[in-house]
Amino acid sequence: MTSRNEKWKPQQLILATEPGAALNVSQPEQAVAQLEHYLSDAVDAEVHVILSENYQDILARMQAGTIDIARLGPYAFALAQARFGARALVNSIDIASIENVPSIPYRSLIFTRADSGITHLVQLKGQTFGFVDPQSASGYLVATFLLQQAGLDAKTDLKGTFLFSHQSVAEAVSKGDVVAGAIAEEEFVYYKKDKGLPPIRLLATSALLSRGPLAVRPGLPLQLEKKLLTALENLHTSDAAEGARLIKMPEQRFVAAVQREHTLKRIAELAGVSYATVSRAINGRDRISPATTARVLQLVEELGYRPNANARSLHKANGELIGMLLPSLTYPGLDSIIDGIQTTLEQARMQLLICPTGNTPRTQPTARHTAYFEMLSNSRFEAMLLTHWSALDPTAMDLLVRSRRPYVLLEHDLLDKGLPFAYNWLKQQGYQQLILVTGTQSLLEPTLAQQAWSQLASDNLRLQDPGSNQTGWPQLLQQAEYQTTAFLCTDDETALAVKTYLAQQQLQLPILGIGNTRVAQLAGIPSLTFNGFNLGSLVARRLLKMLNIFIPEEQIELHFQIAANNSFLPSHTFHAASTQ
């Protein structure tokens, strides 16, 4: 083997771009030629630039010595460093702006179109999802942990696909080819600036990540490394601006990399958890979920990390408060739901603070609503419980997502399990036209209830939703086949209003409410009921999982029943084992 100190002779140098880098330029071939010309002159050797398609190929060829230098993401570089001793040559940093424009952070984003109806990661189950590359930190590894915290396994719960570039993922989400995707925030910003995006909703953001370097294979002559270092440090001042976009963002420049071994901080970044969580997982401390521990230990083994004495003594004081935003404190069964939440949180030594926001249209959030979001996002609150009434406020949710506070939606199981149960029960009674009527006194926000309802349609069943506005009902009822028509109302008060209206029209049609309140019982209206305590416990356990806090596993069951005439009709039990 040639010594690194031996006099270097001119040779061909192979540089590989990150996967998908060709999408950063309008004319890839010209950009490649421009970068090759600049680097060849600077290092006094022939430089050949290849547009890579995936990290797996780059790492294999670097290890074999057929790629000399490559732009790698942080996870791909960590693997290269651990597997065959690759070294970082330069890192990219932001060029100071004379306009004092803040730099774009490097972290992972999970996002969807604003019109997708998705407001929380848990709703992505069974949906199409775009990833960048199996060895991409921001486009896969960190994103999968964000999904895991929400109870989703990227391999089994999503219809995931690798698109092998950040821009391809952004384009797929933009066009609706996939429901959601994960990319680096800086790639998201540049794509939005260059090509535009429809209204987007952020679903999750990771902690800040270290950018990946331009790395060199072991054994590259030292003299060549020095020339490459100088050339790359001066690249941002050269005439090769278009070619430079193949290996860096326009507002960035390269600086010499500081060599470092794998640290707890690096493991934490790649695992998508805090420094303290990694330490506790390595040391076998309690209150860390088995899934999180397994993920951390897998990275530790994969990257060959060895903890030191200082890391073993790390400790972090956790906050103890969970915030809960509620539009109203009068929802049916709310006391039982809150009791279930508090009882579960107490097992983790955490407390619940309830913040009533007022029930207003999502397009006109109250000052109180906004103030609560700001308070909870900028304080020591560990996480938040929300309803869709709050989650559909895009400004407030963007603030919450960027604060990286975990949150869960209170009524998810009612939409996901309760509404289909009511639908199936009405269908079994022989009704062929079901009319959903939404109300403001329901825990179910009308937009999401309508969306969930529309997804239940079948060929032999007509689903209609006139909303709570009765002006369109006469025409609707004229078209209805009365003997096969039934109403589902999202709360019992709305069910009573529908019953009163139908009586005025001298019609007697079946009505089903939700909540089994005193109103339904006195009016003789059948109503969907459920175990509120268990619902609250399920919600709290989801939140604790997102916080990586472990409590003993327990089988939680949601019993959905139809209550009528002070008795219960045949029920359905939704078995939900908590997965900590």
TrEMBL record:
Q: Which domain of life is it from?
A: Bacteria
GO CC terms, sorted: ATP-binding cassette (ABC) transporter complex
Q: Keywords in alphabetical order, please.
A: DNA-binding, Signal, Transcription, Transcription regulation
Q: What is this protein called?
A: HTH lacI-type domain-containing protein
Q: Which GO terms describe its molecular function?
A: DNA-binding transcription factor activity; transcription cis-regulatory region binding
List where the protein spans the membrane: none
Q: Which family does it belong to?
A: Belongs to the phosphate/phosphite/phosphonate binding protein family.
Record keywords: Transcription included? Answer: yes
Name a single GO biological process: transmembrane transport
Pfam families, from UniProt? Answer: LacI, Phosphonate-bd
**InterPro entries per the UniProt record, alphabetical:** HTH_LacI, Lambda_DNA-bd_dom_sf, Peripla_BP_I, PhnD
Residue intervals of the HTH lacI-type domain: 263-316
Indicate whether Glycosyltransferase appears among the record's keywords: no
List the PROSITE patterns hit by this protein, alphabetically.
Answer: HTH_LACI_2 (PS50932)
